Amino acid sequence: MSARSTALLRVVTGHGIIPRKPWLERLLTMLDVRRTRIDLSRLSDEHLRDIGLTRDDVEAEIARPLWDVPRHWRS
Which of 6, 10, 36, 37 could share a disulfide with 16, CB 3.0–4.6 Å? Predict the structure, then answer.
């Protein structure tokens, strides 16, 4: 990875010299939640069983709004 892309990665992830704005942090968290829920919906029933979930659990998770995340994600 080049020095420039490493520096950009540090800024985008909030570990650089430029802190993220609170609204940007919330937006990136919501996008991450969306991506994670989509990935969860694509798992097979066998994979869901391996992690202790049912298809109904997944449907309930997908139905939740993007901003409905655990409190420790928001801090």
Answer: 10
